[in-house]
Amino acid sequence: MSQSLMNFEPFSKINLPRRLRDVDDFFRGFQLAPVFQNFDTAPQIKIDVSETEKVYQIKAEIPGLKKEDITVDIDGNQVSITAETKRETTEKEGETILCNERYYGQNYRSFTLASDIDETNAIAKYQDGILELTLSKKPGKSTKKIMVT
Length: 149
Known about the structure:
Layout: H1 18-21, H2 23-28, H3 33-36, E1 46-51, E2 55-61, E3 70-75, E4 78-85, E5 105-112, E6 123-127, E7 130-136
Antiparallel strand pairs: 1-2, 2-7, 3-4, 4-5, 6-7
């Protein structure tokens, strides 16, 4: 037994203009993409966080920067990473820039950890676009579970 697929148009029996019946054509005329093209969206700093009993290990993806352009601030249990991408301003005489899509500006990421950080033992390394932080937990602050009666 042979079966074939049939194109079903649920609005074909309603007397609507062709423009309204074909939903794809209706939305195609809105041209939403150009409305948003002038907004610069900064790429977010993506992080991985792991912990052991004594330290937090953070890996932050910050490609294309020099280590001098990255700042890490520690305040108690809050960690803030700031990365600044500088715009290159090397234009040659007689050269016209046709397209400039590369981002420049400042990226910022802040997060809170469960324990306070011993900032004197904090280690930060930046290599191949990855910032690695080793943050020691401050000793002496432990949580205590109490029994509810």
